[in-house]
UniProtKB/TrEMBL annotation:
Keywords: Membrane, Transmembrane, Transmembrane helix. The chain crosses the membrane at residues 34-60. It comes from Euhalothece natronophila Z-M001. The keyword Transmembrane applies. This is Uncharacterized protein. It comes from the Bacteria. The lineage of its organism: Bacteria, Bacillati, Cyanobacteriota, Cyanophyceae, Oscillatoriophycideae.
Length: 126
């Protein structure tokens, strides 16, 4: 408090005014490019092309998912000891992964192995 008061007395008023003026100009100088960039991002061309890219990405993801599911070999046996494995509740990270690759979480009662397997539960028309 005393220091601020001392500075107030010692620094000439012109300096303080010019400091505020410079800081205001600096703020405008720094924020103008950001505002311009946001304006560019919100243009219809950019939005439409982004939506198109997202649409294509979703279609590709669905195709890849379908093929992985179709080619998966659904073995319910432990890769370590060849005993039967049981399903277990998936963790949040597995649910996230499951958006891209259809996986299920299994564990083995006899050897303690636990891990993910690709599930092939796809309905095939006959
Ligand atoms: Zn096992």
């Amino acid at each position: 408090m005393v220091l601020v008061f001392l500075l107030w007395i010692l620094i000439p008023e012109d300096y303080i005014q010019s400091f505020f003026l410079v800081s205001q100009e600096l703020l405008v100088f720094l924020t103008t490019p950001i505002i311009d960039f946001l304006g560019l991002l919100l243009s219809p061309t950019v939005i439409i092309s982004l939506l198109f890219i997202i649409f294509i990405a979703i279609i590709l993801m669905m195709r890849i998912r379908y093929h992985i599911k179709r080619n998966a070999v659904d073995t319910n046996y432990c890769p370590v000891c060849d005993n039967k494995i049981n399903r277990r509740h998936r963790k949040p990270i597995h649910h996230l992964l499951s958006l891209f690759i259809p996986v299920r979480y299994y564990y083995c009662k006899s050897c303690g192995w636990e891990g993910l397997r690709i599930s092939s539960k796809v309905r095939r028309k006959k």
